[in-house]
Structure formats: C-alpha cells, structure tokens
Amino acid sequence: MHPQFEPLLATLAPDLQGALARELNRADFSGMLSATQADALGQAGGLDEDALCFALLPFAAAYALTPISHFNVGAVAREIDGSLYFGANMEFLGAPLQQTVHAEQSAINHAWLRGARRLRGLTVNYTPCGHCRQFMNELNSGADLVISLPERSPSSLAHYLPDAFGPRDLAIQSLLMDAVDHHFSLITGGPTTDEASATLTDALSVKDGLLQQALLAANQSHAPYSQAHSAVALQTVDGRIFAGRYAENAAFNPSLPPLQSALILLNMSGADCRQIQRAVLVERENAPFSQWDATQATLTALGCREIHRQLLTA
User: Fold this and answer.
1) Average pLDDT over residues 216-238
2) pLDDT 10s digits, 281-311
3) Catalytic one among 23, 79, 91, 104?
4) Which of the listed residues 121, 214, 228, 291 has the most CB atoms within 10 Å of its CB?
5) How far is CA 287 from the centre of its chain?
6) Which DSSP string do the residues of 191-260 spell out, in sequence order?
7) Which domain holds residue 144?
8) Could you tell me if 150 and 211 lie in one domain?
9) Does residue 155 sit in the same domain as residue 65?
10) Could you tell me if 251 and 134 are in contact, meaning their C-beta atoms sit under 8 angstroms apart?
11) Is 178 contained in some domain?
12) How much is the CA Rg of the chain, to the nearest whole Å?
C-alpha cells in the first residue's frame, strides 16, 4: 500500500474504509479501479459516482510529486464504462518547469495508456488551469466532458473553455483516445544520434523488450498536426517496463511529451522515478522536431544514465 494511503483511510466511514483498504492492499493495485470495483466501493459507502470520486481525490493526490511547489493536486478520470483512473501532478528537480505534469493530464493519460477509449468526466480538487482545459479539448469526448469540482455543480468543458479552438477547427478526424495503429517499424543498424552524447549507447537489439514496448506505444501515439509520432519506454531497477506515448495538442504547447506519459504510468504503478535504469525514445525519421534533447535532459536529472534513441519509419 502507498505509504500515504493509511492516514487517509482513517478519515473515511468504516464501511468505505474497509472496502477501499482491500483494494489498495491488492498487490496489483496501480491507481485505477474497474467499473465493478468502483461500483462495489460506492455500494459499501452508500455513495453515488460523484461522491465516490470526491472521496477518492485525496488518494489520487497522494501520488503527487511536488518537490518545487509542495502543492498537491489529484484528479480522477471517469471512463464511459464506469472505470476510474487516478492522476496527480509531477515535478522534477533539476528539469525545467516546462517538464511538469498537471494532475488532469496525468489522469487522462493514465486512462489512455490503460486502454480507455472515451471519458465522460474528470473530478479534480482544484480548478483546471487554461493549459489543462486546452489539453482536455483534444479528447474525443469533446466539449461534453463533465468537470466536477468540490462545492460546485458539475459543468461541461464547454462551460470552462467557451469559444474553444481545437482539432475540429483544423479538420482533424482522429482525436485523442481514438483507437489507432500507425504501423511504424524500427530503423536498425547503428547509433541513431550525435556520437558525442555521453549517454548514448549502441543501438538496442530489435528483440529487446524495452524497444518493443516503445514501438507498440509509438504506434498508438497522437500527433496529427506534426506527424512527429514518438514514444518512450522506461525500465526500472526491478525490471518493470513502462511505456508512454506522445499526445499532441491543436494549440501545440499543451502537448504531453512521451517521457512524461511514461513517467505518469510509472508513478501510478507505485514505482520510483529515480530508479530508472534504462530508457529508450523512439521517434519518426525526418520529423519536423525531436523529443531527444528534452527527454535526455529530464532523464539525466532523474539519474538515468542509459538512454537510447531509435528511429521509426512508416
């Protein structure tokens, strides 16, 4: 169980406390609840879905990594089938603030990586900033996404982001969370970036599980504006692999880099961001920009020393 969960459990009514403790104590608990699990928790606590999500917010916020701001934000994304996905803000010492992850991005990305195909709502303990409102506008849920905040009536994204600019204004048909397969393959055969880079090693074997997970993630990435599809896979010292995908945005700046996507999954799975042993970035050949510099700099700040880059072709 996450070390910060126990004091939070003590604040709940006994029936909900017992039911939630059983879920949190599961060896495979990873910051999400299936629709069946969520329904059982609601029944145990006598709570509807809204009330249950508010009760879970402190547990989502317990995942926050905030060494700079010390301001923890939690979010719970609700899939249309009733499954719930935790999210929390993340900051990284030694990396620029632009590499920060917002809680809303975390919960949405977490749901996406776990296979969710459409969200109906997002519960968060603080008002979403403009950056996050724009990020949410990329979803296939569109302006109908319901945002729930403490002591306020639920409102749609259209209420929080009126007169919005988004993918539909650019005639983009494939939206964030739509199922896709870009059918990329790896370009192999030697080093793939600047030989002077101190952290670059020889190209990975195509059979390497780390590289294969990155390729799978890249084929599900979202980059309809630049076509600069990319993904990152991270391997921790205990051998676990966490892969994240690039999530591009119509307004560009709120795009979620693939490294942050992978770090969200790693964090929600209870792993330590400072225990990353190996990492690989895969990105499309001849793309208009590269994720390499930012990925390398942030991973170096986190203490990872074995960082690879591999190119993709359509």
Assistant:
1) 98
2) 999 999 999 999 999 999 999 999 999 999 9
3) 104
4) 214
5) 23
6) --S-TT-TTB-SPPPTT-HHHHHHHHHHTT-B-TTT---EEEEEEETTS-EEEEE-B--TTSTTPBPHHH
7) 30-170
8) no
9) yes
10) yes
11) no
12) 19
Domain boundary among 108, 137, 170: 170
Is the domain of 244 the same as that of 150? no
- Note the pLDDT tens digit of each residue in 7-65: 999 999 999 999 999 999 999 999 999 999 999 999 999 999 999 999 999 999 999 99
Cβ–Cβ < 8 Å for 103, 87: yes
Res. 202 pLDDT band, cuts 50 70 90: low
Burial readout 216-247 (b: 16 or more C-beta within 10 A, e: otherwise): bbbbbbbbbbeebbbbbbbbbeeeebbbbbbb
pLDDT at 82: 97
| Same-domain status, 139 and 247 | no
Residues 217 and 141 placed together within one structural domain of the fold: no
Average pLDDT over residues 208-225: 97
Tally of domains in the chain: 2
Does 104 participate in catalysis according to the annotation? yes
Which residue is associated with the tokens 């917010």? 57
